[in-house]
Amino acid sequence: xxxxxxxxxxxxxxxxxxxxxxxxxxxxxxxxxxxxxxxxxxxxxxxxxxxxxxxxxxxxxxxxxxxxxxxxxxxxxxxxxxxxxxxxxxxxxxxxxxxxxxxxxxxxxxxxxxxxxxxxxxxxxxxxxxxxxxxxxxxxxxxxxxxxxxx
Length: 151
Prior knowledge:
Blueprint: E1 11-19, E2 24-31, E3 37-43, E4 50-52, E5 58-60, H1 63-73, H2 81-97, E6 102-104, H3 105-119, H4 121-131, H5 137-149
Parallel strand pairs: 4-6
Antiparallel strand pairs: 1-2, 2-3, 4-5
């Protein structure tokens, strides 16, 4: 591992511990050349996941797209960045746990909505309104009724 400060190859691991609920390892390192310390994370490499979009196009899975959609839905809501991170981690765990190389975008959307419903009902309705592309107010109201009835 090269030092991010001086690019030296002389670095040592001084501490290792599990991170992200045991899905990765956090390592504290020190550079023998410049003496600076830094942190690295080691994760298991997963199979590449291809997302099948609604129009049948295929694209590489991108965690940032899920995270961005959730952040937009949670805008000005009492949802912390840590809760968003945990939600995205939970969705990823389910998706990669299926051990499929291709997955439909509709399944990803449903996974996100299932988790958002329990986290914040307003964020859930916001996400659902974009994801399900409500065509009229009546469809939107029907979704609101299901949220209110589940409380």
